[in-house]
Amino acid sequence: MATAPRPRTTTRDPEELGRLLTAWLSARLPGAKATNVTVPESNGMSSETLLFDIEHPEPPLTACALRLAADPSAYTIFPVYDMERQHRVMRLVGEHTELPVPRVQWLEPDPGPLGAPFFVMERKEGRVPPDVMPYTYEGNWLHSASDAERERLEEASIVLIAKLHDQFPVEEAEFLASPGDGSALRRHVEAQRTYYEWVVRDVARSPLIETAFDRLEELWPADEGEAVLNWGDARIGNIIYDGFEPAAVLDWEMAALAPREVDLGWTIYLHRFFQDLTVMFGQPGLPDFLRRDRIEARYGELTGHTPRDMDFHLLYAALRHAVVMLRVAYRQVHFGETTVPADPKDVDKLILHHASLAAMVQGSYWD
User: Can you give the residue ranges of the Aminoglycoside phosphotransferase domain (predicted)?
Assistant: First the structure.
């Protein structure tokens, strides 16, 4: 992991994007100019981010961030990038909750100006726990923090999720329900099956992922619980922190209507994903940070809702992440950054956390 190449995150030219952005901006604010246009190195492989300032006598925002849908020609991670949906979610969360969501400004659904739809929001300053190399590795600000500082960050992050679930009126989230029939959870899982089928279209399928879907059916909750607005990508790597307090909650492209535990499972497992990788490569990581028992207990104290069927929801989180990781791997194959195993039976090895997912399927991971 220490020497693996970072997967390609963009195929776009930052200078060209800056020129196009200035042309678009000046049409909305005559005389306005986009300055200091940069593409962060931490850009993900789904939506891309541009940072820029607005030079204008009366700008509605001065420090801006632009979220740009993925280049459709660049082997995208997800099949659809609904920027209008993300823009609406962030606006509504800002209106109905205490979460520090950046104020959204313009929405541009026309792909013409920058090659894909986008929206502009205020830019928040602070620091984000890194994904590459993961914050569980030595040498970054969160790993170097004291236990007490990490506990502050953990507590504040769990409070965010609890407030989102408790404060957001569920009727305002109905537009986020997955298509189909049945409960919110059933529809959410079926949407993931559909996503998996898209990922493996014209490429080798994953026996492990398909076995994990079967195992989900065996563990299906007797009482699924209420559906609430789920952040979707609920993890500390999507929060900007001022010190150890959240300053901005980002990345709402996976927002959904689902039981509370769907978010909690994602939060717990995505940390375990980084922790397991770190241990695999010879470092202790942060074994006492974001522990499952502590997150579940604290969430229950904050909301009065005791998380239930968490083995199901943690398996579901690991399964969902495996589908994403398989798509990322096939994207790397597309760009010549890796190769598909010669033996089709080994395709599961393209999934970074295939061993932990297999252990979850077998019921031995949390032993």
Answer: 82-271
User: Contact 134/278 with Cβ under 8 angstroms?
Assistant: yes
Integer Cα distance of 261 and 92 in angstroms: 21
Confidence at 211, pLDDT banded by 50, 70, 90: very high
Q: Which pairing describes strands 48-55 and 33-38: parallel, antiparallel, or unpaired? A: antiparallel
Label each residue of 349-364 as H, E or C. HHCCCHHHHHHHHHCC
Architecture of domain 15-122: 2-Layer Sandwich (3.30)
Q: How far is residue 285's CA from residue 275's CA, in Å, rounded to a whole number?
A: 6
Two structure tokens written together for 121? 């929001």
Q: Which amino acid is located at 206 in the chain? A: S
- For residue 265, give the amino acid letter: G
Question: Quick check: bond before 325 cis, omega within 30?
Answer: no
**Residues pairing with 248 in the sheet:** 240
The first and second tokens of residue 97, run together, are 């909750």
The confidence band for 3, taking pLDDT boundaries of 50, 70 and 90, is very low
**Residue ranges, CATH 3.90.1200.10, the chain:** 147-362
Residues serving a catalytic function are 233
Q: How far apart are CA 112 and CA 98, in angstroms?
A: 35
Q: Which two tokens stand for residue 299?
A: 């969430």
pTM value is 0.94
User: Quick check: helix, strand or coil at residue 111?
Assistant: coil
The HSE-up count of residue 320 (CA atoms within 13 Å, CB side) is 22
% of the chain residues with pLDDT over 70: 95
Count of C-beta atoms within a 10 Å radius of residue 137? 20
Radius of gyration of the chain (CA): 20
Q: Using H for helix, E for strand and C for coil, what is the string for 39-78?
A: CCCCCCCCCEEEEEEEECCCCCCCEEEEEECCCCCCCCCC
Q: What is the CATH number of domain 147-362?
A: 3.90.1200.10
pLDDT per residue over 140-196, tens digit each? 999 999 999 999 999 999 999 999 999 999 999 999 999 999 999 999 999 999 999
